[in-house]
Amino acid sequence: KDVKAACDSFKKIEGVDECIIIQTASRVEIFTVSNVETDDSPDARREEGKSLILNKIKATWEQHSSLEPNDIDHFDQILEVYKGDDVYTHLLRLACGLDSVVVGKQEIFNEIKESLANAKQAGFSGKILNKLFESVIRLATTIRDSTGISKDVVSLGDVAIRLIDEKAGLDAKKKVLLIGTGESAAMVAKTLNNKKIPFDVTSRTIERSTNFSQILGGKPVVFEEVLAGFDKYDIVIVATTADYFLITYDRIKLVMEEKKKGTIILDISDPRAVDEGITALPGIKLLFRDQVAEIYEESVKARSGIVPAVEKIIAKEVPVLSATMKRI
To answer: Kindly report the CA angle at 51 between 46 and 54, in degrees rounded to 5?
Structure first.
């Protein structure tokens, strides 16, 4: 929720000397310098596990996150822990864009640089993390330039917004609604932000919408209020993973029957979340994921052939980086 406050709390854990946090729409990465135990850590609920640094880090993470109770119960199932050389490999893959939702995307690289700058300014990082991040940034810049993995990268959000702009025109005066808070919705939100287009965001719970908006912008709105005021939107982008129709003829019939201006709805959900029956209502133009998928998949395919070359370079650089870090 507050990266600076979280970094401060991690630094207060006995045995943790440095900390840098990278937070994006789809991940939170916490890098610490500490005397982390080399063996597998016992269950934090057991007495012998509570005092271990790794479990203290987990507990602090939970306190500073917006995780819902069900997510906290399954936290260990989604948490990945890296130590030693695995950290160098992971950070290099991240900086080169291999582990991004959109392979090769420049955004994560920029966020790594920004996280380092913020940690330095606040005094949360030190000579070890500073050296590691500076080395990785330098290497990733060379790898990206030499392989071309960042060239002509487009996200699903880029293609979706381009299609809408072609079909209906897109500017800051249009009332835009984004339904969904997952990876596809995050890509759309980033593109809208880049184009400085304001938007409302909704999900099945207002908590998810609020958490999403804190990182990716948008005004969170209760889903039931969205349905009741559906007629005020000019553009609706649906990007969910729901296994049922969220938008149906019956749900929006009354509010849409008297609408004078048209509404364009793009459903990029998989499976579809908008019932085609709504096209019987006046002024509604419905577009589906198929109309953006082909362009997006061509972009993904073009870069997939570059990935092995990037991985090969990383494999050669990690031992060199490891030797450098051991000399500090």
So the answer is: 95
301 within domain boundaries: no
Instruction: Please check the confidence at residue 44 and state whether its pLDDT lies above 70.
Output: no
CATH number at residue 73: 3.30.460.30
Check which CATH number belongs to the domain holding 241 and give it: 3.40.50.720
CA–centroid distance for 37 within its chain: 30
Assigned token pair, 204: 């099945």
CB 28 within 8 A of CB 21: yes
Beta bridge partners of 19: 32
CB 236 within 8 A of CB 265: yes
Give 294's pLDDT tier (boundaries 50, 70, 90).
confident
Cα separation of 33 and 14, whole Å? Answer: 11
> SS3 for 286?
strand
pLDDT in tens, 210-234: 989 988 999 999 999 999 999 999 9
Burial group, residue 112, by CB count within 10 angstroms (0-12, 13-18, 19+) = buried
318-322's contacts with Cβ under 8 Å and 24+ in sequence apart are 318/85, 318/88, 318/89, 318/92, 319/85, 321/88, 321/92, 321/132, 321/135, 321/136, 321/139, 322/84, 322/85, 322/88
Number of domains forming the structure of the chain: 2
Residues 9 and 144 both lie in one domain: yes
